[in-house]
């Protein structure tokens, strides 16, 4: 390779980087006005009780449809909003909208279910997070027992008095807590016990492996028994086929979520009277 060649390569590479950072800056800028421009919405995905195939909860998942940029996936913009701090107002909007929707379902006469809301580690570390939850429950009229907050394992690495107090206060309020994407991070098992979470959600990568290899079976079975040993209920994410469902039911997994039961959809497209019989 000649020096010139290397320079040429480098130039191409840095141009790509520039394009990426321009896109990122655009996203950062557009995120600021996305809420006021009503570009954000929530979709809801059913969580099914695997003992009786009934709906037990809905998970709220944020959707961003930008008029020019199109659909931008949450896995892309949530991390950016966490870096810019935008997640705090975005997360408040999600929590409010999801609680209001769950109350509306109850007011329409549907049997009450839980609403599961993803909460960023950044949100949970805000001084006024618990106060925000209290206000939203008051404003929407939703009883705390129908709200569940999903946090990822990264929260277990945060060892502060503020976090312990907040988790304790949320528990006192009657809000449930679950650990999302379980198995992908570094969970200290002693923390898991100390914080007394209600539920574990097995990451969908392991559930997907059930029909592919033995490791998927071994890992999901181990997580289910771990959860039960610690008196937690366990939800399997990303169930897509009969093989996975049958295996999980055989291992006494409590609940399931995935395209097999239903995709995330706007509230208006859900019929809650449907019994999920498969
Ligand atoms: P998550 O909380 O683990 O949500 C589950 C993700 O798996 C969702 O992706 C859902 O659409 C997808 N999924 C569900 N069932 C299946 C299946 O059977 N197969 C496959 N392949 N995928 C399935 P989505 O909606 O793109 O969200 C991605 C992640 O973005 C979420 O993962 C969550 O970490 C984050 N997120 C979404 N909404 C919010 C929010 O309002 N606040 C925060 N902080 N994070 C959010
Ligand atoms: Mg989740
Ligand atoms: Mg998950
Ligand atoms: Mg996830």
UniProtKB/TrEMBL annotation:
<feature type="domain" description="EAL">
    <location>
        <begin position="24"/>
        <end position="278"/>
    </location>
</feature>
<protein>
    <submittedName>
        <fullName>Diguanylate cyclase</fullName>
    </submittedName>
</protein>
């Amino acid at each position: 390779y000649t020096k010139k060649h290397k320079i040429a390569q480098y130039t191409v590479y840095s141009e790509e980087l520039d394009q990426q950072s321009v896109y990122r800056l655009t996203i950062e800028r557009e995120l600021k006005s996305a809420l006021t421009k009503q570009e954000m919405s929530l979709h809801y995905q059913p969580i099914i009780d695997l003992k009786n195939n009934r709906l037990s909860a809905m998970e709220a998942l944020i959707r961003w449809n930008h008029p020019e940029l199109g659909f931008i996936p949450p896995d892309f913009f949530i991390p950016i909003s966490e870096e810019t701090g935008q997640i705090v107002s975005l997360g408040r909007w999600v929590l409010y909208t999801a609680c209001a929707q769950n109350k509306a379902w109850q007011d329409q006469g549907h049997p009450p279910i839980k609403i599961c809301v993803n909460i960023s580690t950044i949100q949970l570390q805000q001084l006024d997070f618990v106060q925000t939850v209290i206000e939203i429950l008051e404003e929407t009229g939703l009883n705390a027992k129908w709200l569940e907050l999903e946090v990822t394992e990264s929260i277990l690495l945060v060892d502060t008095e503020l976090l312990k107090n907040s988790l304790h206060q949320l528990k006192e309020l009657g809000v449930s807590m679950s650990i999302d994407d379980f198995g992908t991070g570094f969970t200290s098992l002693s923390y898991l016990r100390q914080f007394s979470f209600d539920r574990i959600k097995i990451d969908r990568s392991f559930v997907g492996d059930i029909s592919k290899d033995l490791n998927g079976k071994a890992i999901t079975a181990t997580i289910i028994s771990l959860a039960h040993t610690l008196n937690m209920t366990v939800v399997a994410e990303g169930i897509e086929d009969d093989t996975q469902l049958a295996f999980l039911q055989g291992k006494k997994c409590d609940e399931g979520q995935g395209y097999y039961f239903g995709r995330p959809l706007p509230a208006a497209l859900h019929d809650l009277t449907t019994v999920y019989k498969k």
